[in-house]
Amino acid sequence: MAAPTVSAAQAIGEYLQSPDDLVKVAAFRKKLEKEKASIDARLKTGVKEQLEATRQGLSKLLGTRDNVQSIRDEMTSIERECEDMTIKVATFDQISRVSMVHRNFESTEEMVNNLLEMATRLDHLEHMLASDSRDIVGPAPNLLIIHYHLNQLERFRNHTMHEAKKASASSQQTLTRWFERLNQFITRFDEYIVELAKNILPLVRAGHADVVVRLVKIAEVEGKEDEKALVMRFVKKAAKLDAALKFKSLQANARVLKHYRSKIQKAIIESIQAKMEEAYKQDEDNPIQFLESSTWIYQDILRIEKDVVPCFPADYDIFTHFIREYHKSLNTVITRMAARKIEATTMLSLYEWLKEYRSNMKELNIAPELMEPPLLDGKEQNLIEDYLQLIIQKLDEWSNNLMKTELSEFTKREEPPEIDSDGMYGTQGAVILFQMVNQQVDLAIESGQGAILARVITEVNRVMRGIQEQWTKTVDAELKKQIEKPEEVAGGLVEYCIALANDQVKSADYAEALLARMEQLVSEKYRVTINESLNNAIDGYLDVAKKCMQTLIDIIFNDLKPATKALFQQSWYDGVIHQIVETMRDYMADYQSYLNSALLELLVEDLLDAFLLIYLNALANSPKLRMPAAAERIREDINEVYTFFNTLSTAQDVENRLRVLEMILSMLEASKDMVFLSFWSFAKEFGPNIGFVEGLIRSRSDIDRSGAGEVMDSIRRKVKDENLTDPPEPTIMKKVTVQNVFTRFLRQ
């Protein structure tokens, strides 16, 4: 943001603020003259430097223009010199033909010599390949040599066959016969490369990691040649004739693509599959033995990470490739094993082995994404109970569908909630959910295994807690919309919150009944798990019910915001409390009609506590209280609130909760000398609350500042002497927010 401009008069005014400052005018003038001279000197220097830089720049631009013109002239001269040589040299055509004949003679001589030598070279190469192939996990000393010479022969074949395209059919057939032996050798070498790739791990274990390195090097070389061949084909298809003629070497290279890299990767996959299949077939009739002897998988992984990975370039990501294929092959075998009719002991062994497998892979720092899909698609529970996964799946599916309907009805609120047989608001959600739960629990009981039943109950708890979390978030979201944008929200939130609260109590009762039934069916080992799960679900239902009760209270006091803000303000003396009480009365009339009696009792208690907290916060931060009118007004407020809540709860309970206001009123009504006695009664029950009490005393208009100070000094001494502290159980006064002295002063 730009700084505000200051006029000369304003600037001088800052220095000449009194008549005595006129003496400083001469000094101030000299100071300004010095500053002006300094600024002028810097500006002059800067302008001079800028002019010099500009002059140099123009000079360089002129020199550049001369250089460009010189280059242009030279290029024109070169172009003239490069005109058609047939015009400049009369015998150029003859020279060109002689040169071509010479090249053809040399090419023909080289081709004939290569054809004559090819048989001998192939004899030598076949001998080396046979020697290396005898031991597939041996040192393969001739691998690179064979590849080098074979690559030369293959290039010669490609060039020759390309040149022979213009020859007669019989000549082409003759050449094909000549190269048949070479083609067969190329096939055998490719097969040897694949076999090496299938034995990468045995090669490393045999101490011949260098063979793997050479194998990868060959794949890299052939990969680059494949890329060149692909470029050639693209040029032939896409480029114009004159452009294609510039790639004669590529035209001659009629290469057959090798795809060594993909072949090596495929060979690795096949070798892993074959190894896994062989291990399984050895113990196909004894699956437990297969599982117990499967430690070789982890040994292979460790060896691969330590010795195989360094042999490959990083872009191969060879460790990931190996791990994925080991996992996929293992998954194939395990799936086949699980699909067979195996004994219960085998099921349990396999189940435990799967957990051990995941644990071992985690210890080996194998990323979870490399083990996709999970063994048995993550449904290993089917091994110990063939229907448990179905139970879980159905629970999730049914509960999700149920919640979609329930949440849609709750948020849209197009129709009023249903009224049950007791005349209370409610929905069918709780009944439907527990019908589903009991069906699945009955299935688990039929299995006769406490572990399965415990698992089902655990899953039931998970589903219930998920539903409870959804309800909590939905209620919060709907309340927020109700408060922030009431005009955009569908009506009926109060009614649906009542219905939801009733449903939660009903669900808690159903869960308690389920718990009582389960405790008789399982041993102590599983009873603890079942108790914890169902008690956790019951607590969750009660928490959601409490959330609904708090929401109903929040809705009331959201409507009462204008009235509660007026507490202890000027309009309060005219009886604002009547509006507050009548509003609560209207809401409670609706609540009483359709709310569960146990929840209604809780709601009344929480509503009274919420009112007291708002009232006490307003009093704690009130401006000056006009005495005795303020005390009389508080007395009337207490009476009206007592009368209202006495219709909802027992007189004793209401009186006990309003006792804090009675004691505070006693401190307001007491004379300056008697305040201490009222305070002492208050402090023994609710704690000293010095900040609150001091604000209350100082807000009394009938006690001046010094008098209030004397009272507070007396109170502080007594509190210190008696070592008076807050009661063990927190009271409502712990929730009261007292503003600091400065803020209270501003409010006054």
Automatic annotation (TrEMBL):
GO BP terms, alphabetized: exocyst localization; exocytosis
GO MF annotation: an example: SNARE binding
One GO location term (cellular component): exocyst
Keywords: Exocytosis, Transport
Top-level taxonomic group: Eukaryota
Family statement: Belongs to the SEC6 family.
Protein name: Exocyst complex component Sec6
